[in-house]
Amino acid sequence: MFFHPMDILIFAALGLSIWAQFKVKGIFNKWSQVAVSSHKTGAEVARQILDQNGLYQVRVEPVRGTLSDHYDPMKRVVRLSEPVYYGHSIASVSVASHEVGHAIQHKEAYGALVLRHKMFPVVNLTSGIAPFLFIGGLLLSNLNLIGLGIILFSFAVAFQVITLPVEFNASSRAKKIMVSEGIITNNEEHGVNKVLGAAALTYVAGALMALFELLKFVMIFFQGNDE
């Protein structure tokens, strides 16, 4: 069976994505066993950082699941998975601080985050339609459908790419705040870097896979035009 070079890149990105998911879970579990010297829980750290940045109205709530942590900009809530909310490990305070980093970005109207929020409703719609246009275009040998699918899917790819600086910036903020506020010691920065670095890798893998998929359909489109 012959594989197109672009297929190989997509499979490689998929493999990276799966590996990254296992890696982030493994690293989170490892550093969940290491207590932070400040003995603060993820919930306490989140509340402390929020209050110090004047975000008194942003709530901190526990949510079921593992690594289901997120910041909800609509309801102004930092939701932390139970292991993070109640845990007092390096992994717990790292994830909690990262999510609070998004709340601070929201307060400061961080450019990439603002753009990401504005794109979300559009991407939510176009990402659901694009696959059907691709499939319909291929089955009917209709390049117009494929071309429209490419345009719509481009929004999803752009969303993935814009997510990268948002996540990297939130992690950078988290590390600086944790050190400056004495939440972690300098010796604990290594563990924090491991936890946040592994999480960032999942976003990089997702962006690469989306980009390679887009390039594949662009190549199909131009090959069809040549024929």
TrEMBL record:
GO MF term (any one): peptidase activity
Transmembrane portions of the chain: 122-140, 146-168, 200-222
InterPro entries recorded: Zn_peptidase_2
Alphabetical keyword list: Hydrolase, Membrane, Protease, Transmembrane, Transmembrane helix
Domain of life: Bacteria
BP term (GO), one: proteolysis
Name recorded for this polypeptide: Zn-dependent membrane protease YugP
